[in-house]
Amino acid sequence: MKKHHSVWDAIEESSEEAANMKVRAELMITLQERVKRQSGTQAEKATKLGLNQPRLNDLLRGRIDKFSLDALVNIASRAGLRVNLQVRKAA
Known about the structure:
CATH superfamily: lambda repressor-like DNA-binding domains
Structural class: mainly alpha
Oligomer: single chain
Helix content: 55-70%
Radius of gyration: 15 Å
Largest sheet: none
């Protein structure tokens, strides 16, 4: 049985796709937490993030397949977050 480092390694076809999904998932979780802590209606939160309400709903429901890494970085920036990328040699 092959040992996987993460769930993404197990379900994605390539290590590149798994790496992309790991970063997207981390960003999405951080954004979900940030949005949930903010006051206001969903419509107000969506406007602040430059999204429409259905798009914010996709984010809050974790529909990761609907968001590219670029889109999540842009949303994070509008949410007042700074994204840092750390690259290390693979194990």
